[in-house]
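One thing: could you explain this record?
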Amino acid sequence: MTANESVSVTPFTVTRIFNAPRDVVWKAWTEREALEEWWGPKGCAIEVETLDASSGGTFHYSMRMPDGQIWWGIFHYEELGEARTYRVREFVLERCGRGDPRTVQRKLAQADPQRCHVP
């Protein structure tokens, strides 16, 4: 690919049902201790550098891979809604701090009293 070629990006949706109430799943996405416990690929150690889970805030983290490499990522929270929704600009950064952004939007829906649907 040359610098003058454009890349076409097709939006896609990932859906998951969690066996937990919506408020528990929301805390897993917005609280430091929970994010360090589950965020990132299996086998990675996550360290949260900064977390301000509010509109205009950031989630800046590092992921230490099993082979010792460290990857950095940052979310810029564009909007967090009262209805347990959020939209972020998400970057996975190279060592030099550059990364390609993508916009991610999630809405947590209560499937039933014990399960949460995240489309």
Q: What stands out?
A: Residues 22-113 form a domain with the Alpha-D-Glucose-1,6-Bisphosphate; Chain A, domain 4 fold (CATH 3.30.530.20).
